[in-house]
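[Primary structure, fold]
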Amino acid sequence: MSEKFSPPAAQLPTDKELVLKVIPMPADTNGNGDIFGGWVMAQVDLAGSVLPARHIQGRMATVAVNEFIFKQPVRVGDILSFYAAVTRIGNTSVTVEVEVFAERFATQGQFVKVTEARLTYVAIDAQGRPRPVPKPAAPLAG
């Protein structure tokens, strides 16, 4: 008798911000019927860019995918939640960690961590050259 593997339910992160929710569709599948990894990577890149945009305040480009781990397959109809946190702000770049959780169609309210990644974005000028990340304004004295 074979039992289907079901990973334990995951807790959603409290130290990251929800930056994107999306539902993959049948057109996003690979030859095995799961969601194509490249589609997931594109969504992670979009989600990962949300927080750096607040710091960079202008054009930016993905300069590195430092780490990308597929932990579980993503299925058609999953509700994917993308959580992100800035881990480093450099002179011209911002590094972000992204965690992706799937809420399976058949088990609403339970989440499975399907992907985690670390990406670096670089601030660029109108010519596409790196430029400094603006420094935050000093807090008001009070």
Summary: The longest strand covers residues 111-123.
